[in-house]
Recover the amino acids of this structure.
RNA sequence: GCGACGGUAGCUCAACGGGUCAGAGCGGCCUCUUUAUAAAAGGCGGGUUAUGGGUUCGAACCCCGUUCAUCGCGCCA
């Protein structure tokens, strides 16, 4: 057995792997074999990569220096019985010093510890959060008590006799085709902060989340699942499959949003595929139709040949693409001499340049810039060809076509090329020379091949020159030659080929016809389908459009256009950040008419009957209403199933041509039309929202990512201005992009995304929420596992601070124990002033959506004001004073008010943890069942007066404290003192500092955490640190002159004497049990 | 290519309309305590405010250029 004598030693441990929470040291006797002389378990908290922890051990007794040593770690999830051997955790250890020391001269072995008479913090609030387990339990409780329902009910109750003002955040629907990503979590998290903070600020703020369900991504997925079967299935079955697919993700995302702690009407979110929503969408379409905004037209639109549908501008993304660019000569067939006498009798050509050879079969014209000079470039040989190109591009073209010996023989203005004619290089077609101002000298030849069916510019030029816009490329992108134009019996090789496959075949044909002058692949950015990421084409088709130039009545009653009217409304909205206004204004100002039709099935049908003769729609408001009614009952399926005869009587005639036969339009609406109608389908129609939304003056917020300027903000604005003559929102806030730690955009290919659900499952939703609050969402935000871990550290600190607050509130009953404000000690009053100040700032930041400032301010408050200062200096008072003493009650009153304030201020962000804290707060008769049913604290409730003077005074006082602490630190470095309580201070000061110190003389000991402070006048500020006189009180560890025995307790100060008596602690006798006094050194690792 | 927004310590953020030597918190390093203990406290480092000019008595802030990052628009033959 160990003999008398103790060893002090220090151990250096580093953990490169996981946490080390405790370790065991086993000592073996010198030369001994397997006989441990003792072992001891040490608590530790060593984080990964922390290099060392020095432990000065109080080893009880050793007979000789130990030699063999073992070190174990104990995983906290396992009992001590199964220690993990050191090497498993990659531990490095050594015993640096081992020396003997005299046994403790004050063995208190036979007297119960004085520690048991202290009022240490006591609470069941667990230090370890265990969020992944605890949060789901909390969610279940909330669900059980129908917390959201209770919040809604409470919102109907007046505050101070006044009804609550309304604040409506209308949810923008995420697309229901996958699990959540961080962007979703950010978006819903921010919305949750807004709704919760508005609610707690006394607003009536309902939140109905929604989902966007229609559209291509889902239909394509369903196509893949159904395969060829789809072609034989009735439309209703296809729709049912799409609905099922979308519903799966609606359910999944709902569960994930709920898991993140977002409150809302999750048991009844809106979905754009619901019967009712579909009917409302159709209603909105009819609104446009009946208002004269809609027209049907043949226009080139972006067309995805893979998805076989038209695409809106907003559905285009530019990606790099390689195109074969070709220079092609078109032979002049009109009189060359008409252009210039110098050309008489020559073989004249113009040269066009294109990157889409497949459009050449549709080539109908060559466009020239009227303001350019064009030159005729002649071959050196007398009867060689002459080429017409823009003067500015001549050199470039000659080089590209390797015609360097060609020389200019004449030049003339571009305008004179109008109405010249050319021969198509391989079709029996005459090509017309036309003028167009969009022809530039950047690229090409100055002579632009014009195919009205495959380009917007080309199309409008075609309209001016009366060219045929018929498109000979079908839905799938297959090219068909017009046999009437093809001179040979055998069709050309490109006939029946898809456009991109036709390119090389057409180039070959040009080569054969001697029309190809040069060819080169170019790598350039090219429009792609945002869904399938395949290159799109321009293709003229019959589409439904909403005209931006539709005449409407302006706000002042004057005649204006839909576009202008919309821009007027933009001006009445508050855009946050403010540049959003400019962005959306520019978009509305320059956008083309809105192509709202899609040639797909998964969506709201454009439910219109068309005359089979003249293709004009029937315009009949009653008919429209009946169709809306049908959709209301049976959803979009109704349109596919209804018979025309059930919609109109046999006597119905086309208003235009008198024809009596009609067909159903089969196109569906653009999905942006769906979500753009949500203000109508939801905000204006849902009974939970409409009373707010339909007020003439109302606050309606849309909060989405900045990309929605071209999306939901945009389509919602157009729909609402057209149908209600006002913007659907009064405020629009936008969030930035989530990036990775290196500032790169998150993408699947980089694999740098952060999965919010994964973080919630591993670390807790609170960590995700805290991250959201930590960043300035208006800018782009960096996110990574690493940053999440950092938030988790902050979380731990906040949680532990709450725990300490609660621990010190033990035994405090507000009704009987709270002191009125004017009886509080000065330090406590100061802390309430700080809390008031914090509260006022936080409330302001909530209303300005500056959540990151809240995060930082509360964090700083908890760490600097509370943990490092107030809670630290309060320990003496809290632990050693009699529990019911006025000074201690003063502190508790303050701690209580601070906790009540903090828990409310943090509730919108840390929704789970604050609820947990809430349940541990002192009981009150009128305490709400949830922190989320409470209101924010009012600054004036915390501190009734203007806090500024007191705050200023304490600012100076704390600066003096810093000086004193520095002096203490110095002494500690010089080994003159250890704990601050071992010191006493003499502070010399003059002037205002002296006044201040004297005013707070009785508080200085506490706020400096030393045994004694004396203030004396002096020439300059000087803090002298001395070892405290008197002896140490074994209870409060202060050094006091009045220390004397209390029963068997030898050294107890006067203050503690009184406290012990007040607590009615009987003086102990020396024979009291010694059993509990020492560490269980006999515990074995075996 | 055009436009918007931004670049402040390793990280997240401050610094009210130009005015004490640019501040916090975290992390890092060092120390202290064992009476918040899988915890608490103190100290120390750390920034030529992306960069180059300019205006000013004075610039992180205002102006111009450059650069990097992100978003948006355009990309047409």
């Amino acid at each position: 057995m160990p003999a008398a004598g103790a060893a002090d030693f220090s151990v250096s441990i580093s953990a490169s792997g996981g946490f080390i929470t405790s370790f065991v040291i086993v000592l073996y006797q010198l030369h001994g074999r397997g006989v441990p002389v003792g072992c001891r378990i040490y608590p530790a908290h060593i984080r990964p990569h922390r290099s060392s922890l020095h432990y000065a051990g109080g080893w009880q007794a050793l007979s000789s220096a130990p030699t063999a040593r073992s070190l174990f770690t104990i995983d906290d999830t396992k009992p001590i019985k199964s220690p993990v051997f050191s090497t498993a955790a990659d531990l490095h250890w050594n015993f640096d010093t081992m020396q003997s020391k005299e046994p403790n001269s004050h063995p208190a072995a036979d007297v119960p510890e004085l520690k048991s008479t202290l009022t240490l913090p006591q609470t069941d609030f667990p230090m370890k959060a265990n969020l992944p387990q605890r949060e789901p339990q909390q969610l279940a409780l909330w669900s059980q008590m129908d917390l959201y329902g209770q919040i809604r009910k409470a919102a109907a109750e007046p505050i101070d006799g006044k009804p609550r003002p309304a604040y409506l955040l209308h949810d923008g629907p995420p697309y229901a085709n996958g699990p959540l990503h961080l962007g979703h979590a950010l978006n819903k998290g921010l919305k949750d902060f807004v709704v919760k903070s508005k609610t707690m600020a006394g607003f009536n703020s309902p939140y109905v989340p929604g989902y966007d369900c229609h559209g291509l991504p889902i239909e394509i997925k369903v196509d893949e699942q159904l395969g060829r079967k789809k072609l034989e299935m009735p439309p209703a079955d296809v729709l049912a499959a799409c609905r099922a697919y979308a519903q799966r993700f609606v359910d999944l995302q709902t569960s994930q949003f709920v898991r993140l702690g977002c409150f809302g009407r999750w048991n009844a979110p809106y979905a754009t595929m619901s019967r009712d929503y579909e009917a409302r969408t159709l209603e909105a379409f009819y609104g446009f139709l009946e208002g004269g905004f809609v027209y049907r037209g043949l226009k080139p639109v972006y067309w995805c040949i893979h998805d076989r549908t038209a695409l809106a501008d907003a559905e285009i993304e530019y990606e790099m693409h390689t195109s074969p660019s070709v220079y092609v000569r078109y032979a002049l067939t009109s009189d060359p001499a008409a252009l210039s006498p110098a050309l008489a009798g020559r073989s004249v050509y113009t040269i066009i340049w294109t990157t889409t050879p497949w459009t050449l079969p549709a080539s109908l014209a060559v466009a020239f810039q009227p303001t350019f000079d064009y030159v005729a470039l002649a071959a050196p040989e007398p009867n060689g060809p002459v080429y017409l190109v823009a003067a500015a591009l001549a050199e470039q073209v000659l080089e590209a076509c390797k015609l360097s010996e060609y020389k200019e023989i004449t030049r003339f203005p571009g305008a004179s090329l109008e109405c010249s004619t050319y021969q198509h290089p391989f079709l029996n077609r005459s090509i017309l020379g036309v003028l167009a101002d969009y022809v530039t000298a950047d690229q090409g030849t100055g002579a632009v091949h014009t195919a009205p069916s495959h380009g917007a510019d080309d199309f409008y030029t075609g309209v001016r020159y009366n060219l045929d816009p018929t498109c000979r490329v079908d839905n799938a992108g297959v090219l068909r030659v017009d046999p009437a134009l093809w001179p040979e019996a055998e069709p050309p090789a490109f006939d029946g080929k898809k456009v991109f496959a036709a390119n090389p075949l057409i180039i070959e044909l040009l080569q054969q016809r001697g029309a190809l002058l040069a060819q080169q692949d170019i790598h350039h950015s090219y429009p792609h389908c945002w869904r399938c990421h395949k290159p799109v084409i321009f293709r003229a088709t019959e589409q439904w459009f909403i005209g931006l130039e539709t005449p409407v009545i302006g706000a002042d009653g004057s005649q204006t256009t839909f576009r202008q009217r919309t821009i007027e409304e933009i001006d009445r909205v508050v855009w946050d950040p403010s540049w959003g206004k400019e962005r959306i204004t520019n978009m509305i100002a320059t956008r083309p008419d809105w192509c709202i039709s899609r040639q797909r099935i998964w969506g709201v049908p454009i439910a219109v009957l068309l005359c089979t003769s003249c293709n004009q729609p029937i315009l009949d408001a009653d008919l429209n209403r009946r169709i809306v009614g049908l959709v209301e009952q049976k959803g979009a399926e109704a349109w596919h199933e209804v018979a025309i005869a059930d919609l109109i009587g046999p006597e119905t005639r086309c208003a235009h041509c008198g024809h009596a036969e009609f067909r159903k339009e089969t196109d569906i609406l653009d999905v942006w039309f769906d979500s753009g109608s949500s203000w109508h389908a939801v905000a204006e129609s849902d009974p939970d929202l409409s009373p707010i939304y339909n007020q003439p003056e109302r606050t309606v917020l849309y909060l989405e990512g900045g990309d929605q300027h071209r999306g939901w903000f945009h389509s919602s604005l157009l729909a609402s201005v057209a149908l209600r003559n006002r913007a659907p929102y009064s405020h629009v806030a936008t969030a930035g992009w989530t990036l990775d730690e290196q500032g790169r955009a998150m993408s699947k290919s980089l694999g740098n995304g952060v999965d919010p659900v994964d973080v919630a499952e591993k670390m807790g939703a609170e960590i995700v929420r805290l991250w959201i609050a930590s960043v300035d969402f208006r800018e782009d935000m960096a996110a990574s596992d690493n940053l999440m871990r950092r938030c988790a550290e902050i979380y731990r600190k906040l949680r532990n601070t709450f725990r300490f607050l609660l621990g010190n509130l033990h035994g405090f009953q507000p009704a009987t124990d709270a002191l009125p404000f004017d009886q509080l000690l000065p330090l406590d009053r100061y802390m309430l002033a700080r809390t008031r100040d914090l509260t006022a700032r936080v409330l302001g930041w909530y209303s300005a959506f500056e959540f990151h400032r809240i995060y930082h301010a509360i964090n700083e408050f908890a760490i600097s004001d509370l943990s490092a200062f107030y809670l630290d200096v309060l320990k003496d008072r809290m632990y050693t004073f009699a529990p019911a003493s006025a000074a201690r009650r003063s502190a508790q009153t303050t701690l209580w008010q601070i906790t009540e304030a903090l828990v409310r201020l943090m509730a919108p962000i840390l929704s789970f943890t604050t609820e947990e804290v809430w349940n541990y707060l002192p009981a009150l008769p009128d305490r709400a069942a949830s922190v989320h049913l409470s209101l924010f604290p009012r600054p004036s409730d915390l501190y009734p007066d203007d806090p500024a003077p007191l705050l200023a005074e304490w600012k100076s006082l704390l600066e003096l404290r810093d000086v004193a602490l520095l002096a203490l630190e110095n002494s500690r470095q010089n080994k003159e003192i250890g704990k601050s309580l071992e010191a006493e201070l003499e502070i010399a000061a003059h002037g205002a500092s002296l006044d201040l110190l004297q005013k707070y003389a009785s508080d200085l000991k506490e706020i400096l955490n030393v045994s004694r402070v004396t203030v004396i006048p002096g020439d300059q500020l000087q803090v002298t640190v001395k070892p405290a006189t008197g002896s140490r009180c074994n209870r409060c560890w202060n050094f006091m002159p009045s220390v004397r025995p209390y029963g068997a307790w030898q050294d107890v100060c006067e203050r503690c004497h009184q406290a012990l008596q007040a607590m009615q602690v009987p003086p102990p006798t020396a024979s009291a049990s010694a059993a509990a006094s020492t560490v269980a050194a006999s515990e074995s690792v075996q």
